[in-house]
What we know:
By secondary structure, the protein is α+β, with helices and mostly antiparallel strands. The chain has helices at about 10-30, 90-105, 120-125; strands spanning about 5, 50-55, 60-70, 75-80, 110-115, 130-135, 145-150.
Amino acid sequence: MPVLLDxxxxxxxxxxxxxxxxxELRALYNDTDERTEPFDPATLSGxxxxxxxxxxxxxxxxxGALKRIEADTAEVKRMYTVPDARGRGLGRQVLAALIERGxxxxxxxxxxxxxxxxxxxxxxxxxxxxxxxxxxxxxxGIENSLCYELPLDVRAARPPP
Length: 161
């Protein structure tokens, strides 16, 4: 039975997942120049950061993270499911947990970037309520990048006074 865990960014298994994601994206976009956003997993250990993974039988099958990019905004990062585990709803489970964590941390919105060739990811994000926005930050001017946001009602995560 898959279990959702908080994992430290230094966990070798989650680093391996993130590297596999980058290899897959470079192959999908024929990116021989490695033009993808530079990323250091250690940046996921700060305040307002969350790194989740789905574990089954000691193996990590999926991961995703939140990284604070503004006082009120976190970016969804490194959503990935290993190919053999796709179609089981693991990515949806990770994303739902990240959304709830974002609310609990008091973020007003989540943003993310995905690529125009990633139909499954686009469907996942749109079905979770994310809507297209102009490209932000690193992704401004990158034509195959699609950026999304999800406003969060942080009051829903807090008990009434």
